[in-house]
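Escalation from tier 1.

The customer reports that the assembly of two entities below gives different structure tokens on two consecutive runs. Tier 1 could not reproduce it. I'm attaching the input and our single run for tier 2 to review.
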Amino acid sequence: MAIFIKNGAKDANYISAKESRRISKENRKITNGYEKKRNRKVIPKAEYVTKMKNPNNVVEFDNLHTYFFSDVGVVKSVNGVSFDIPKGKTVGVVGESGCGKSVTSLSLMQLVQRPQGQVVEGAIRFNTGNEVVDVTKMPTAKMQKLRGNKLSMIFQEPMTSLNPVFRIGLQVDEVIALHYPQMNKEDIKKRTIEMLELVGIANSEGVYKMYPHELSGGMRQRVMIAMGLACDPELIIADEPTTALDVTIQAQILDLLRDLKVRINSSIMLITHDLGVIAEMADYVVVMYAGRIVEKGTVAEIFSNPCHPYTIGLMNSKPAVGKKVGRLYSIPGKVPNPINMPDYCYFKDRCEMCLEVCAGIYPELVQLSPTHFVSCYRHYDIFREEDKG
Amino acid sequence: MKKFVIRRLLQSIVILFFVSFIIYGIMRCMPSSYVETQARILSTKPGAKTYQEWIDQLNKAYGLDVGVLQGYIKWASKAIVGDFGDSWYWNLPVTVKFSKVIWHSFALGFASFILEIIIAIPLGILSAKKQYSKTDYAVTVLALIGISIPSFFLATLLKYVFSIKLGWFDLFGVVGRMHEQLSAIGQFLDIAKHYVLPVITLTIISMGSLMRYTRTNMLEVLNADYIRTARAKGLAEKKVINYHAFRNTLIPIITLLGSSIPNLFAGAMVTETIFQIPGIGYTSYQSMIQGDIPFTMFYIVFLAFLTLLGTIIADILYAVVDPRVRIN
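Tier 1 run:
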């Protein structure tokens, strides 16, 4: 009998068919509720028009929770994320794969895979220029007017992000025609070619008539950027825009983005796991881990004084020029199972600087300077001494 | 593109020769050939020659006294100029018999082909759009019923309900009792009415697989990055699906439809038999079991020709919908 009991110890990922059915039934009930609320015929304007906390911000994420109701349980991809994107600034979001960086940005675009993925709590306030809206509560039809227009997104994979069966010109024209219905065909084409030139495509007339497969990855990413900028957005979300490109093209694309930001005066939310890119591009940095923000601050603060053990680990695991190391540092362990998150600090099991209190509830954000916040017990005033001692 | 088409056509001619040779060889090897059957019948008549004598005489008359290769060359040299000879079993020139029966089959095939497309593709797209919803499950069940139900059972069921119980349609045949007295339009409508049940049968049994195929492809396309891009542009969901996704879904569907062109002429043996429609399915089956080499040769070579043509057409259409495979 003992053998059976031993084998009966539950694997974290194992789930019986009965259990799974029960979960998916429950999930359907929950997601149907959200869908029903979203698909109401008339959604009063008062529900989604709000006010910014700080009028200098373009976007304010306020306690955002985005959950995925999967058949094995609820995945809390984004679990209480709050940060601001000031006007004309670049905010970098870093973290390992699966930390909820992309889901945060997709929540802002309302592009989370529905009905499984739902924003269950919190708000994302967005300043469109003439009014402030909470995009999590916006009806889809209104949201479509913002996407591509005031809010645009550049994706990770330029090789697959353009529709292979349509010409480049058509794909860029489409977004301009959609958001500027008063423009005629020639003007739209002129604008498209102008945009292609703006992103540094020399043979813009030729590229206009080409299909995506005739262009290289870097060129395609330029087209994606042109498409993103075509309607003068307030905010550009760049979701790992250089991950799929080789290093020289990466540098070109980053230069381009920086140059364009100055020219069209919009904000950028830059998602990446390349700290070098952040150092070069961003004004503010948000470090995410397992769906939560562990540290945020200005670039200078984060790079000169990383406070959270995870940030320190990330800093140590990037190669530095001129520093000779035998083997590059890597943070031990892996991101915890997103379904059964522990109730103590999510990083505790991988942390090398653990304190006794770390077994307690998840630490609150601690303010270290007007802009620098960290969520770690080591920086609580009462424990700081203990750490040093 | 022109070069590509010419090359494909030349390849097809070579393939056609091999295909026809193999079929000829198989026909010649078939047990109980037409000649043997005839000889057996003739030799049992009173005062007739012996079986062996009849065999020799008939073999000579039908040109079967030579080897497979010579026989094939003889057939091919005539076929190449369009002379397919006379059918042994039907006692008519092959092409005459063929043109007499093909139109019934073609009309059935064409009507069910069109219906299949206009029902299955939109339903497939719908069920992909609403994956795991009640609509999706309903469509899936419908598709599976269509795939798994045998045509003879479905045809019988339809006959029972619509002909016997409701009396809306005749039980079988292609013309009604009063056909000759009707005007031209009336005659046409009369035939059309007789086609209804067989067309429904053929459509239901062929619809399922196309529906599932469309659904699978649509789901794959809907998860593609460029669909997310289209949504991020602010396009309405309708436009995303009907324009951006549909054009990409079409690529594999066209190959499937292109290769089903020969089915338009292949006839449906079981359905035609149950509804007693004198189509090609019934005729070719009879010819084959009787060992009627000229008719079977013509029919199968014709299908092989259509199959090859279908693949070429599919390849050309492929290039039309997918710019990545265009050849300069």
